[in-house]
Amino acid sequence: METTFKVYRFDPENGSKPDFATYQVDLPDSATVMDGLRQIRDEQDPSLAFRASCERGSCGDCALRINKKGRLGCTLKIAKTVKNGVVTVEPIRNIPVLKDLVYDLESFLWKKIKSVQPWITPRGPEPDGEYVVAEEQLAEVRKAMSCIMCGLCDEGCAVIKIDKDFVGPAALTKAYRAVFDPRDGQHDERLTLVSEPGGVWDCTHCFEANGHCPLGLEPTDRLFEVRDEAIRQGIRSGTQNPKVQRHYDSFLNSVKRSGWLDEGRLAIESEGLTNVAGLAKLLPTVIRAIPKGKAPMPYFHPKRPGAQAIRRIIDKAQRSEV
Amino acid sequence: MPKYDVLIVGGGVAGLQAALAAKYAGVQVALLSKTHPLRSHSATSSDGLNAAFGSDDSWQQHAQDTIWAGAGLCDHAAVEEMCRAASDDIIRLDHVGVPFNRNAEGKLDRWTLGGNTLPRTAFSADMTGHAVLNTLHEQCMREDIPSHEEWLATSLAVEDGCCRGVLALEFGTGNLEAFSASAVVLATGGTGRVYAPSTASQSCCGDGMSLAYRAGLSLRDMEMVQYHPLGFCERAAFASEGALGEGAVLCNTDGQPVLQANDQPLRDALCRSLASAGDGVALDFRSLGKERIGTRFLYLGRAATEMAGISLDTAPLPVMPRMHRVLGGIRTDTSGATALSGLFAAGECASPGVHGANALTGNALTASVVFGRRAGSAAAAHASNTAPQALTDSALQDAQRTLEAVFSRPTTSGDTVVTIQRALASTMAEHVGLVRDEAGLREAVRCVADLQARYAQVGLRHHGKMYNHELLSFYELGALLDVAGAIVAAAQERKESRGVHYRSDFPATNDAEGSYHSLVTCGPDGPVLTTSPVNTGQSA
Known about the structure:
By secondary structure, chain A is of the alpha+beta class. Chain A is 44% helix and 11% strand.
């Protein structure tokens, strides 16, 4: 099968700007995108740089953006992705590129994974033999642990795009592995850690991570489960993060009062009613929003129909939590 | 110049075990790895870890099975060491978080793999290597062990008869650097890319074997090249042999079972049997049902769909034997020590003597776990008793001059690193494969020598410094040629069939003349073969 490869090229050594180079490859129908890149490097242009290791979707080394989607180059067949005879290959997004298709995972992924301290610390004295654990308790941990750290969920994450400090779905999937491992002794400490700013509460529920995971591990759902577990343990919003706590309380109180979210109240109370500097930071946004009718008066939010029923539901839920 | 007490070269399971053991011993340890540790070939290991658990099994029975599989070439002391330690090491892995599958009582579930008389293989679905690698990496993060990633060790720094560190190339910059260490552990993995096709990752180039070989050390039992019976037909992936224990059936083109019910032969016999059955053998999972496939074969289910276009619950997966690993390697004792003071080795690059002529399925990862830990401990002890010595500048200067000389070679011959590597891998598959004979081996010797000569002249087309893959491949090809020379020399000398080494011109086992370890060292005119007796005594 003859295919045109359009490949992102960037070489800081020669000072040129990033650009695409075009190559023709001829490979069997069963060939993968990685086979194509290798043929280019081996037979046409030895300067092309990319990473590849296991060649079978086990190691995550070859995550690339292929025809505008984050994919593993070693398992994606050319025949499955080619469009009008062309395969376009780029580095994944939102990440510093080092050379061609080689990018810097250090700050993007590895440091973030370490930041959630995803190592098991045995709770109490270890048993003489293995821990006696029901298979059902470990099955999902095992599945989460099958993550190959390709970084494609982070590549698709809508928050990381604008906030590089968000630890992201890959690190939080790793956190899930530790949080739900019954052998771990740092359960609450880790939940507190990932509830800090930049952690689980910074996810905006876009579900892009689920769509981008090549293994179908549903990182967004796992992140939500970590949140739920934090709430169950009374670590609702991070014990060291009063702003998130205030945000959480204001959100709840607003919905409980009117059945709607009072966004003005939420902004003010999240900053803190006595936090003059924080409130001052809101002013430019308020000034821009008023002429566009986007700044309704806080605390005078009209109640929505059925607000009483919503209040009763919340009261009941809170009583059952207690 | 970075300085450590212990430097671990290689970030797979054996390397991480060694790093943790050295750290727990209280010395300053660092990793140096060609890839990020989580990209290591260990991630592909699917069968699990053998160890004797429970009252129905014993380390002695495990040892007996291992020795039987090894066809007379296992060193009994090494086997005993591994089998005695395996259960404690695996329990330790459980304590730090490997999500091993559980049985109905919540204890470790076990697979029965070929050659094992009992179910003794602990597993984490069919991703045990991946799970162990990730768990050990977590613990290395916890211990804050420094990690130099995307560095290739290009030579050992040997001064006054001692290994004092390594010279290494950083891919990202193209710079050479000297790493000083009182002890070095080679855990660089296997050398599968000396064959094509194989199950090897791109990184499996025999780097550590070559480093030791060039430093004058012996490579042991290199003729023992194991194939994996359940390789994919078109990709490097393979199915876990746990599939056979779970009830998957190997069928021929007519859909008839290739094996008798409950028959799980040793890997060498199974591979030869499948090879003689020809094309069209397939592994049929349909009797397992979708749910069991989904929970026990997390990796294979996905891999079969993506790479073979097969849904395991609806159609059999075509399989074929693929070259899997060399069972031999750098000769070590049971602590991982080599004959060079300060140098240790563990994992697939090493030969402590447990595999003999045919590794018992499920023992490979166990050997990496046990001997990785032991090598790390022994290296730490050595470093603690050795006064640190700074490396002289001359080693680095020599390495830099060598590198400059490579870059200055002309490229006019039309030969490239790639063409030589391809010729080498196809030669090895054709002449030094599952079935060998004198004529083929003689041809292989000639080809490898010819390729060595071409390698000595080949130039590089790309002269950039950053991520110059052609330069990396140049070093890797040098290692592969060293390894190939050792394999061919040892295979030609062994005029019998034993374990994975099958010769059609000498189909019988000859215990009178064949009960020896081959030892290949680097001579001025090529590989030099000697032998050593097999240690059939128990450890003290």
